[in-house]
Amino acid sequence: MARVLTEVGVVGLGTMGAGIAEVLARAGLSVTAVDVDEAAVARGRGHVEQSTGKALARGKLDAAERDTILGRIRFATSMEELSRAELVVEAVPERMELKRDIFSTLDKICPPDTILATNTSSLSVTEISVATGRPSKVIGMHFFNPAPVMKLVEIVRTVVTEPSVVEDVEALAARLGKVDVTIGDKAGFIANALLFGYLNHAVAMYENRYASREDIDAAMRLGCGLPMGPLALMDLIGLDTAYEILDTMYRQSRDRLHAPTPVIKQMVTAGLLGRKSGRGFYTYAGRDSAEVVPDAHTPAPGGATEGAREVRTVGVVGSGTMATGIVEVLARGGYDVRFVARSPEKVETVGRELARSLEKQVQRGRLDGAERDAALARVAGTTSLDDLAERDLVIEAIAESLPVKEALFENLGEIAKPGAVLATTTSSLPVIECARASGRPEDVVGMHFFNPAQVMRLVEVVSTISTAPDVAATAHAVSERLGKHAVSCADRAGFVVNALLFPYLNDAVRMLEAHYATADDIDAAMKVGCGYPMGPFELLDVVGLDVALAIERELYAEFREPGFAPAPLLEHLVTAGYLGRKTGRGFRDHARR
């Protein structure tokens, strides 16, 4: 049975350490908080007072509760004050030699049964533990910043950590109101191993000038529902901190996807550390400010739509969910829309689905009856591509098959009037192949809508090496009129979102495949620790494992990056027919739910 701890200590009172001290005190424990000198202690006390003061102002604490919490924390400058602690959490900077020195000192001061925990986010807990004479009593207890708010704690056991120590720390995490995941000692643990690979990839995308910082961040926020874009998150974390974590992970794993992108080191050397220095990928109003201010790299308003061709009439080819959603969005945006389906029955189906969807919007108060009727009046269906001959813009939304799309674009190139823009909604296939097939490649652009098109605000505007500037501008202008946020990128596998999302999902599958953590723990780590709307395995089951595998194969074929090769477990599940929610089973069994 787990011990009920009452006397605990914290070493290091930066933002994280002070937050951990507050969390422990809030749970009713007596806390001794230690830092190197009076100035550091004063800063730590200030962090706790400021944090609890905010909670008081928001009504989450009353004055008496705040006083009680502050009264439970004793501040000190000597680790000798920890001689009665039952557990000590170390939260000093991520330097191995510093942590080992502290653990060696704690080993001499604390009783033999005291648990020594490190809050490291990336260093080897095992290497820290052997600086003591009690490695079996050493464990990782990785809180997330800010500790009073973030619910996740990664509990990291080494190969020699005693089961009773793990049990005691798990019980403490529950007492603190945290969600814990218990894992082995591996570089980055769960959350950082998955998060920082993704962040590093995003920085490489920016460094290669594939897309702007604003477009990369907007794409991941709007396309994946993430709370922050990757470059803004790097600025929040601190580029120096990010570099240390990536470098540590690379030295342990030798996975080149964790090798810090060179520009990170260059920015750190130049003092561009992110919010803490007032400038990183973005420029801020001042040190430690969250307010982004314009700089030399800020795009000019309206620049992306400059020179756009006039579009009054639009054609849509396709009758599936995506095509129907695009038809609805265009009609609500005021465009005259004609869609092409394979048969009269398909035309009727699209009409019914469109009417049903618009009626739902009326029932939810998002449209009135007159707006619904006007939108429906703007739409007509047909089975003949020839009926698109006079359209200003034609958007293809058919099956994700390159031969099928090439045949369609060959026809559209002959049918569409001169000057008409031809767009493909492909999410992974080369736009240039469609452009070549059309015989008029300068008129072809990618307009990758996200599903459901009625809800998702993002459109990736994909230019090939042949796309005319006014064609890309037209795609931006149409997106803007539809209330969408368009981002610009070049014709490359995965574009922005899929190129960043699917390697992260593949890394999660590899982590599960290696039996490092369960699907439930990995999902919890990313949702609770990183604020993701869905865990990787939840998302894979929704997207479809076959779809994920096809995209990952495209990425691997284009980039030849070994780390992008689809995880064998994913390939095996697809071979077995376990495709996710659509078949009732993927990484989880949905048939029983």
Overview of this structure, please?
There is one protein chain. The chain is of the alpha/beta class and 593 residues long. The protein contains 22 helices and 18 strands. It has helices at 15-26, 38-57, 63-71, 96-109, 125-129, 163-175, 191-207, 213-224, 230-237, 239-253, 262-269, 321-332, 344-363, 369-377, 402-415, 431-438, 469-481, 497-513, 519-530, 536-543, 545-559, 568-575; strands at 7-11, 30-34, 73-76, 87-90, 115-118, 138-143, 152-157, 179-184, 283-284, 292-293, 313-317, 336-340, 379-382, 393-396, 421-424, 444-449, 458-463, 485-490. The strands form three sheets. It has an eight-stranded mixed beta sheet with strand order 3-2-1-4-5-6-7-8, with helices on both faces. An eight-stranded mixed beta sheet has the order 13-12-11-14-15-16-17-18, sandwiched between helices. α7 packs antiparallel against α18 (497-513), α12 crosses α13 (344-363) and α15 packs parallel to α16 (431-438). The relative contact order is 0.08.
CA-CA gap between termini: 33 Å
Low-confidence stretches: none
**What portion of the residues fall into strands of 2 or more residues?**
5-15%
Q: What percent of residues adopt helix (DSSP H or I)? A: 40-55%
